[in-house]
Fold these 4 entries.
Entry 1:
Amino acid sequence: MVASRETQIYRKDAANLSVQEREKLIKPYLPAPKKSLRVTKRSRSQAVRMFLKTQLHVFVYTLMHILFSLYVRLRQAYHVILDRVFAMLYYHHRAPELIKQDIRGLEKIPQHLSVILDLKEEEQGYAGLEELLDDVAEISAWCAGAGIPMLSVYEKTGILKDHILRTHRVVSSKLHSYFGRRVPSLQIQAPHVPSFLNGGDDSEQTPSSAGERQLTARTNPGITSISGHLSILLLSAEDGRATLVDLTKTLTEMSQRRKLSAEDISLDLIDAEISESVMAEPDLLILFGPYVELQGYPPWQIRLTEIYHAQDNNGVGYQIFLRALYSFANAQMKFGR
């Protein structure tokens, strides 16, 4: 009786509801409507299109890598063959006469040559230092044979500056193997470090360099110095931007103390101070590494320097040195107004 009475009451209330209100009441209890066939086909076609687009991108990316890798391999093979040909046609055989013959046709040679060398990370320690010293000695002998009076060697860590006396011994020994008894006089120096000179007049020698000359004379008796003079300057990262910062601080303090007016600070003054404290601007800079990377080389000194770099080269070689001299001789220097 109770159920039938409630049913009658519900039917009476439902009879007063509109069609929209009835749908609203039962809509939460109805199952979700199925998607139309047209919508399903559209989603499927979009998925296929996205898949094909992704595969096309992967194919183009892979193709670009294959072509670029092929180009790099061919370029490396070309440079290896070119270096081998140069090594066979032009080799010094530790004879300064052959070096002079190789550069005889050049209209000009640099008076100040600079190089950037690396201490190999995998050979740090005694082996890496020995290889680095040998590279410095070889380049020094090539410069002496070519008549280049000034060589600056940049090594980022400054390990050469810590072993300047040892560097002097290795370079002296290498020059003796090239020139015999007619070795050029040698001076090795570094910013803010005493220089070492041998083979020159006794009046020009410091006590340390005089001792070095005596050591060289004992190890290589009969050496005479009539083949010119070679100066080697050792540089490191602390001689680059840090020098500019220190000079800026010094000029600022002098200006604040009224020891120097702002009008007196000019490019000529800065250039003179940097040239005196570090070095003058080199004519030619040779990069022996595979990439164009200056590694913190003093920036002020290379404003007008000719920079030579051989692609895919990874080591010091006479053929790179010779090609750099030929490139410098054929370069046109346009300084503007």
Entry 2:
Amino acid sequence: MPVDEAPEDDEVRQSYNVAPGYNELIYRADVPDWGNGSRSHREGGANNSEAEVTKNVENTATTQEATEGNAGSKETRYKLQSMKWGLIPFWTKRKPDYGSMLRTINCRDDSLIEDRGMWTTMKQRKRCIVLCQGFYEWLKKNDGKEKIPHFVKRKDDQLMCFAGLWDVAKYEGAILLGLESVSADAGAGEDQKFYTYTIITTSSNTQLSFLHDRMPVILENGSTDMRTWLDPGRSTWSAELQALLKPYQGELDIYPVSKDVGKVGNNSPTFIVPVSSAQNKNNIANYFANAKGGAKKEDEESKIHKEEESVSAEALEAKHVPGETRETQVDNGGTEDNAPLPSSPPDTQAPRVKREQSEVGSEEASPPPKKHQKTSEASPTKGVSPAKIASSKKTRSATSNGTGKSPMKRRRGVEKAPAGSQEISQFFSK
């Protein structure tokens, strides 16, 4: 479907948990605020009752002629517009409370059959399409004590197009900011308009009946049914329009999601991820599956590493050439002195002289330099030589026992132990 006008990016925010009172994108024909056809009610409405809506006779003929002329002369223009979920009728003069707005977030298809009730003007003149990726429904268990949220979307992942109704209202002497009203004297104009919408519901199809007995009316994007629903030339309700409000015939994808979506204010892309999906990190089954997958991955990496080492070892191993002999040749006649010396580049340095054996021997035969014994300059005893002092002290040898014989060389029964000593075995035999 074509789009001739769209809001700014800051007017609509992306959300994965849309609640009543949020602003979302609505697709509709580019018609005046009174809707399709001629102008049939005063801006600002009547006294809180649709029965008191009055027609502007002066503008009826002129507007009707203009509408019929435009239908034949140019194509219908369509626009995307930001509107708040929870329809507020045009005749409302004061800001409704949140509870009143909750009662108008949905509109039953069977309530549109008769031409009476609050939806009469909207269904005739102000029809729209609500765009979204999908919607949530809760599966009730244990007599309603447990509720499990499920996400519902198209099987082909295309956007869902809900049939809806819209309206615009103005408040007397006040404006609406979010869910609170402030005085018009605060700097805002009294002509500010508030666009709101509702979603039309019908009976559930066989795919969704296990979750809920109602579902939104879903139209195919660009289909004849959608063009008929948005046709600005249709300003009266008909059986043809009523017939469009039926359960969806296409395939749906329905699966449980995180319970965090049940709290208004939460917003995360994980809300539309299936609980059983591998992308859901909060699922305990996926936690253990990831642990097994990690171990399997480590085994595969270890196997690859071993294969790489094996390939490297084969690359380093010398290959045998047919006919090649690998016997070791030993030259017993050669000596280390016959090893070739490194050659020096020509004209870069003087030639080296090979050292003769005699020179090597003479160097090895030369005595090492003598070490000078250090003597103390300050002697503790005056007039006594250091030799006499050393001889006066009795010393013990670290390698001799004073007998001149080594006890380790004495064998049992061959040599008698010196007096005053005995073998340890004889000592314990006593």
Entry 3:
Amino acid sequence: MATQTSTTTSTSTSTGPLSLTPHHRIPRGPVTATLNFYQPPSDASTPYYYVEAPPPGHPQRNFDDAAHEVTIGDIRGKESTFDINTHAFGAVQGVASAANRQTFEDDAAVKEVYYPEVEKLLLEKTGAKRILLFDHTVRLASPGANRAPVNRVHIDQTAKSSEQRVRFHLPPSEAEEALKERVRIINVWRPLNPPIAAHPLAFADSQTVPDEAMVGIEHRYPDRTGETAAVKKTEGQEWWYWSGMEGDERLLLQCFDSEKGARVPHSAFVDPRSEKGAGRESIEVRALVFG
């Protein structure tokens, strides 16, 4: 089945030429690092975030961060022990790709060359009937980057906004039928300057993060309001990362599953072992996964 795409205002992906980065030592193994969790607005108002420039007199967001030191384990060497249906993340190795660095400098090329590869991967790994890729983001770690790594624990979608996504991207009759079956939203994440030496991605075992830790955040676009989830720190959370991710490795991050409920809080973090000057470039493609 051909990939269906519908790029939304949520993604600004044109970043210019990607920079070549020198080789740096790759931190491995468990690490203790700071993750930024949710702290509510001081006035107890509804938390929000403006995707683009906020109206005059309004801050970009009205909630704060609560920094916590967290032990983050390394899944390197035990990738097969994690299952996306249970843990809400999965690791895939040995993925062939025709995309090169130039591919990711242009949105049209990403959709023409890389999107079909992502669709094929998701069909193989999830057993889904249909994949709809709806946007992507290229992230750079350099100062002033248009879309830098997000150093705040979050989930891209909630149950509410996942249903909104289906209705936004499908005609009404198709959306109604699709919502009668299993619907998932999965991000496919890969490095663009491998191996990852800095600003890796941390992700939590879904089983260790209770629903009460999730807080809906109004995600305000110019023409509509969606919803993401911020995450509060709770006891017993288990956090992981994948050290030194290579160019043929893909991280599957499940943000929503209407059937099994597994969803993955995640965040970039500063690894205190990273060498000065190391940066991270990556792309995530977001997909509606049906069936």
Entry 4:
Amino acid sequence: NAPEDAAKIIQDLIGLSQILERLLQTIEEERSTKVTRLTSLEGLVKPDGPLETCQKTLERLNAKLQPENGWRAVKQSLKWPLNQDYIKKTLDEIATAKATLGLALTVDQM
């Protein structure tokens, strides 16, 4: 069901966005106060780490949702571009990113 799928994806992306905004705010506060609190930040930004994996997931989702040109655009406009397996995988990846980033924020703020 495309409307339900879209709502689930949007809801998870909003949650991820809130976590990323808190992470950014914490990083900016750390820079301005010169107090190091983000001890787990290095683990988040390493190659193939949680932030890079999250970025790749969002880039794949964005590519799937980009409009096509010509006749492909007509065909795409008639059907939802995401299948159930892709949606489940993407939602699982977003949930993992939210959990990992949220946990890192919680641990670093203790």
